[in-house]
Design brief:
mainly alpha, 0% strand
C-alpha cells in the first residue's frame, strides 16, 4: 500500500499526528493509526507515480534502516527481542527490492 497516496477521514482518526522524525513519518503514522483498530483498504487502480532522486532519503538504505529501527524501538516501543526479527525481515526485503 502506498502510504503517500492515502486518503483519511479526519473524523475517524481524531487528533493522531505524525511523529517528528527525519524519515519514515508516514510509515510510523500508519502503524499508529492501524494500532487503534482502524482498517486500511486498497484501491485497485494506480493513481500516482513517484520519482526518486539519487540523493533522496528514500534511496539511502542505511538511513532508512536506521529510521526503521528507531520506529520499532522509540516510536512503537517494541522490546528488543521482538524488534530484532522484525528488523531482520525488513532488511531482507529491503535488500531484495
Amino acid at each position: 500500500m502506498g502510504r503517500s497516496t492515502a486518503m483519511l477521514r479526519h473524523s475517524s482518526i481524531g487528533n493522531l499526528r505524525m511523529p517528528n522524525i527525519k524519515a519514515g513519518q508516514d510509515y510510523a503514522y500508519w502503524l499508529h493509526i492501524l494500532k487503534t483498530g482502524k482498517r486500511a483498504h486498497l484501491f485497485p487502480e494506480v493513481l500516482m507515480s513517484c520519482r526518486i532522486h539519487k540523493d533522496s532519503l528514500s534511496r539511502n538504505k542505511f538511513i532508512k534502516a536506521k529510521q526503521q529501527w528507531k520506529i520499532y524501538r522509540e516510536i512503537e516501543k517494541i522490546p528488543i527481542v521482538r524488534a530484532i526479527p522484525y528488523f531482520v525481515l525488513y532488511t531482507s526485503q529491503a535488500l531484495t527490492h
